[in-house]
Amino acid sequence: MYNRMDILSDKDFDLLHENTLRVFEQVGVAFHSEKALDIFKRHDIKVENGVVYLGAKDVEKALATTPSSYKIHARNPQHDVVMGGDNLVIAPGYGAPFVVKKGVQHRAVLEDYRNFCKLVQTSNHIDYNGMLMGDPSDIPADRGHLHMMLANLVNCDKPFIGSSVSERAALDSIEMAGIAFGGKENIQDKPVTMGIISSLSPLAYSSEMAEALIVYAEYGQVNMVALLSQGGSTAPVTLPGLLVTQNAEILAGIVLTQLVNPGSPVIYGSTSTVTDMKTGSLAIGAPEQWLIQNATQQMGQRYGLPTRGSGGITDAHCLDMQAGIESALSLGTTVMSGANFLLHGCGILGAYIAMSFEKFLADEEICGMLRRNLKGLGVTEERIDFATIKEVGPGGEYLTHPATFKHCRTEFYLPEIMRRNDYSTWSVKGKKEIFDIAEKKVEERLEQWREPEMDGDIRARLEKYVEQAF
Amino acid sequence: MYNRMDILSDKDFDLLHENTLRVFEQVGVAFHSEKALDIFKRHDIKVENGVVYLGAKDVEKALATTPSSYKIHARNPQHDVVMGGDNLVIAPGYGAPFVVKKGVQHRAVLEDYRNFCKLVQTSNHIDYNGMLMGDPSDIPADRGHLHMMLANLVNCDKPFIGSSVSERAALDSIEMAGIAFGGKENIQDKPVTMGIISSLSPLAYSSEMAEALIVYAEYGQVNMVALLSQGGSTAPVTLPGLLVTQNAEILAGIVLTQLVNPGSPVIYGSTSTVTDMKTGSLAIGAPEQWLIQNATQQMGQRYGLPTRGSGGITDAHCLDMQAGIESALSLGTTVMSGANFLLHGCGILGAYIAMSFEKFLADEEICGMLRRNLKGLGVTEERIDFATIKEVGPGGEYLTHPATFKHCRTEFYLPEIMRRNDYSTWSVKGKKEIFDIAEKKVEERLEQWREPEMDGDIRARLEKYVEQAF
User: Fold this and answer.
1) Is residue B278 part of a domain?
2) What are the alphabetically sorted keywords of the record (chains A, B) (predicted)?
3) Which residues of B touch A426 (CB under 8 A)?
4) pLDDT, tens digit, 9 for 90 and up, residues A214-271
5) Residue A75 is part of a domain; what is its CATH number?
6) Which chain B residue has the Cα nearest residue A394?
7) What interface predicted TM-score (ipTM) does this complex get?
8) pLDDT at A3
9) Of chain A residues 306-365, which have a CB less than 8 A from chain B?
10) In chain B, what are the helix, strand and coil shares in percent, each to the nearest 5?
11) Closest Cα in chain B to A88
12) Residue A242, min C-alpha distance to chain B (Å)
């Protein structure tokens, strides 16, 4: 039967892969970093005028050493995660300059960032702490990452994303992660953190990104090589064309990681989408984004790599039905296409311009519901329980049957903020929308947060590092 | 690679099917209709105390004559649809007693019903007109179907659902459909309409439903045999158990259709879900509902039958983010699982208690986006367009490239009510939510509606039929 999710045949993949190799050979990928160019040159890869021309052999060689799955260690080992296989790891929104509430934006500040860390720490559905969960405007730009790393380490003991805004920021992240794990030598080739590496579409890498990538690779930390290219502006207008340029950009970055440190862990991914042709702006709620997600996850899987998708993302600026539709179908498509890692899992509004605390919780609920469904049906004789069906018979009822009591707490997902009241109960309770429920829940979650344990000496050294960094 | 949508293995299916046969043999399905029981008896099927005990052979025999696909004819042949295969036919919400707007409910009236017909007629995404799009409270209960059938035929020339509230109502629907098509003989075994047949879970059929089913089958019209059973109250609490009782109920109905008229068209489906264990109420936004949808579509496909799923359904009472999440993931899961027919595609709020005009349009948008994605990627050399990638090169831009102009109107879905403005444009324009945009659009759609052509004589005869019916 035609499987509507199976949108990439082997033939499709081969065509996309072959054309990627043609791009490598005839068009190339520009790296605006001498350091990166030198690495390619040292490995006898053709470089001309700052453009790198990979060969098929270079790609094969890289894919032979990239691990298909690996563990990422948390300060608290109970929160270790496995990247790859059939695992699903969810991280929050990343990179928004604003925080928005009921349609009113304010520039994000460090206190917002700390609060997002606390939400991650208290979350049943998010397993990976972020970076840039709001970009703190009350910290000088070149020091932001230090405070965010400190906040990550102090407020949350789940694994976390490091900074990749520059080589310096990446090194600071590694240093601070090193302090937290009792010494930098303890984390060499033992993944504890991740750099989010975006190419500069089309077909280029900025010096900052390339050099951050090199740092993470050197230390054997995870390079999540992804991008946001826009069909019709920074990528071809046709989706197959976009998948080719996207693939070239990602693979070029991955090749570089393996040249720096063969076997260093990577993730293959994207949050590419299309341009809204009416306004010329980014359209992250577009249905094409879900299609691209599906294809991207399948391509990464074919390369034997852990894959990254996007999460609860939307062009809406408030928690209305549009926000729900777009976030749910983005998250849902990505998860059902096999994604291993979701960035922007929770909290994004307005095409990445803002984080929202209330949306964070609503997106978490989507994640919880999808995770429940990933457990599947569990079809066994025992769970079919024919004996009960026979006992209840035609016209009977199951509500008061012992079997129902036995299973009712475990069989069904128990929502945290979705409401299921009938109309009159809902009316009597004030006709609340999910925003209202979420708003209250955010407060409760921040109340219930407790600072995770940290060695006093480590804490002091981290704070000193932040203070003294340039 | 583990495919997260493939939740029903062959082994799972066999186990569910075998247990369905055990239910038929040892538990049976009750039919509260002498007429139906007689039909089973006449075919040497065991009937005892109003309970029917089917054999494996009865099921096989029925599945040998059910068509796997067929056309349903519209008054306007341009709106004919094909049921089955890889087709997708979407119909509106069905059965709600109220209409709701901005959280305020009023009992549905005939004028609401007519307006829903007009929305269907002017829709780019809905191909099938309903019945009970709101249940008109200003018409005596036993005459409602007559007025709805008249409204269907006059306001819309797409195919439509008939009434199945009783044998009488089904016969009236057939009579009126017959008038519209120039005579009842013209529609004998030529599908023009459909009865929505729900079993009485668990494991029973009311006399009304069974006898409506018999009427539709006799005339070779479509029987959409589905149900709404509730895990933990009218079905087992465990999902595999629910899938068994559900399967038994659906197949029993389908067997009856084939005994009445072998080869008469059917659809296999469900909108079953779970009970909210906190409140005891129906939870149609539950994630288990999407899982059940997926399994149901797959089971119907394995039986070689066209399948029915649910559409944009939610427990929310207004167009907030919960409504978007639940509607999108229900619609999305059902469509991606291969459903051929969606009932409740558009308009439902509050666990089926109300229809909403604004939600109708928002759900339509989801349908439009999903349909766009069903077209797939179209991976060809031509659409990869390597020449343009080479021309633009690293660091170039596609926005002003001729290829972009060429494709920009056809490649991307153009949303009807989703907004993609940046924050300041959105603010300046009044911070509208999708409800506001939809509200305005509803008015526009009703304005632009034009009554489809109908022979004056046919119109007169239909009106006379309504007037004179008992």
Assistant:
1) yes
2) Methyltransferase, Transferase
3) 317, 350
4) 999 999 999 999 999 999 999 999 999 999 999 999 999 999 999 999 999 999 999 9
5) 3.20.20.480
6) B203
7) 0.96
8) 76
9) 315-329, 332-333, 335-338, 350-351, 353-354, 359, 362, 365
10) 45, 15, 40
11) B4
12) 8
pLDDT tens-place string over residues A134-177: 999 999 999 999 999 999 999 999 999 999 999 999 999 999 99
Q: Hey, are the CB atoms on B434 and A322 less than 8 Å from each other? A: yes
Pick from A326, A397, A434: CB nearest B320: A434
Contact B90, B127 (CB under 8 A): yes
**Total tally of structural domains belonging to chain A:** 1
Q: Can you give the pLDDT at residue A2? A: 52
Contacts of A328 (CB under 8 A, 6+ apart): A312, A366, B324, B325, B326, B328, B329, B332
Q: Does A303 touch chain B (CB under 8 A)?
A: no
Phi, psi of B351 (to 5 degrees): 55, 45
* List of residues 6+ apart from A308 with CB closer than 8 A: A224, A226, A267, A268, A269, A270, A300, A339, A340, A341, A342, A343
**pLDDT (mean) for A420-439:** 96
Confidence of residue B409 (pLDDT cuts 50, 70, 90): confident
A469 inside domain: no
Residue A291, pLDDT > 60, answer: yes
Beta-carbon separation of B384 and A241 below 8 A? yes
Per-residue pLDDT band at B428 (split at 50, 70, 90): very high
> Which chain B positions have a beta carbon within 8 Å of A329's beta carbon?
328-329, 332, 366, 369
Give the pLDDT confidence score for residue A1 in this predicted structure.
44
How close A121 comes to chain B (CA, Å)?
Answer: 24
* Those residues with Cβ within 8 angstroms of residue B131's Cβ, 6 or more apart along the chain or in another chain: B94, B145, B148, B149, B152, B160, B161, B162, B163, B196
| Residue B330 in domain | yes
Residues shown for chain B: 470
pLDDT in tens, B334-353: 999 999 999 999 999 999 99
Place of tokens 């013209």: B186
Residue B26 is assigned to a structural domain of this protein: no
Distance CA B134, CA B116 (A): 9
Hey, which residues 236-295 in chain B have their CB within 8 Å of chain A? 236-241, 243-245, 274-281, 283, 285-288, 290-291, 295
Residue pLDDT, tens place only, B292-313: 999 999 999 999 999 999 999 9
Distance of CA B45 to the CA centre of its chain: 31
Q: Do B279 and A421 touch (CB under 8 A)?
A: yes
Listed in sequence order, the residues at least 6 apart from B166 whose beta carbon sits closer than 8 Å to its beta carbon are B208, B211, B212
* pLDDT tens per residue across span B60-110: 999 999 999 999 999 999 999 999 999 999 999 999 999 999 999 999 999
Strand, helix or coil for residue A128 = coil
Asked if A420 has any chain B CB less than 8 Å from its own CB, the reply is yes
- Is A414 in Cβ contact with B277 (below 8 Å)? yes
Give the span between the Cα atoms of A394 and A400, in whole angstroms. Answer: 15
Bridge partner residues of B90 (DSSP): B342
Question: What is the residue range of A173's domain?
Answer: 63-375
Looking at chain A, the whole-number percentage of residues with pLDDT higher than 90 is 96
| Average pLDDT across chain B, whole number | 96
pLDDT score recorded for residue B369: 97
**Chain B residues with CB inside 8 Å of A365's CB?**
325
Count Cα atoms within 13 angstroms, Cβ side, for B252: 39
CB-CB contact of B112 with B355 (8 Å): yes
